[in-house]
Specification:
Elements lengths: L4 E14 L2 E14 L14 H8 L7 E6 L2 E2 L5 H11 L15 H11 L4 H14 L16
The chain binds adenosine-5'-triphosphate and magnesium ion.
Length: about 150
């Protein structure tokens, strides 16, 4: 028996309806990604890369097809369950940061731990460790607009 895929997608379709017009953003995508694999998604503008990533991340619902993450079907999960699933299983680095402008770097990094019920002292420690790991220990009290991209 081979290694079970971490991400398994079958015949994924997404149709956007714009008035009378239908846009076939995904026309039946199937793929498997195994633990430890690094994947690149390449395609011309409008080919459906962002659409596919949004489906894999559980941020958007497919029109049909299945998305299985670590053995769990997420294509029909409720928003409430998806929010918990994303927190436990997914990391997403957005192209347009999506940082909260009124919070410092440390507060932004620590925020997801707040929703998982981690206590403040542990959150602060974890955020400090992560920012230090990427060379940002001197920017922990800066807000997003006070930092480079
Ligand atoms: N919310 C939406 N409503 C309607 N059509 C959409 C929506 N989002 C994407 N599309 C359409 O779906 C198709 C795929 O778009 P998508 O954004 O996934 O492409 P992309 O590969 O990420 O492109 P880019 O390289 O420019 O980021 C395009 O034709 C796009 O216009
Ligand atoms: Mg895109």
């Amino acid at each position: 028996m081979g290694i079970q895929p971490v991400i398994k997608i079958e015949n994924l379709k997404k149709v956007y309806k714009l008035g009378a017009e239908r846009v076939n953003a995904l026309a039946g995508v199937s793929l498997e990604i195994k633990k430890g694999e690094i994947c690149f998604l390449v395609g011309t503008s409008g080919s459906g890369k962002s659409t596919l990533l949004n489906m894999i991340a559980g941020l958007e619902k497919p029109t049909s097809g299945t998305v299985v993450m670590n053995g769990t079907h997420i294509e029909k999960m409720s928003e409430r369950k998806l929010a918990v699933f994303r927190q436990k299983n997914l990391g997403f680095v957005f192209q347009s940061y999506n940082l909260l402008p009124t919070m410092t770097a440390a507060e932004n990094v620590a925020m997801p731990l707040m929703f998982s019920g981690t206590k403040p002292s542990v959150r602060e420690k974890a955020a400090k460790k992560m920012l230090t790991a990427v060379g940002l220990e001197k920017r922990m009290r800066h807000r997003p607009t006070q930092m480079s991209g």
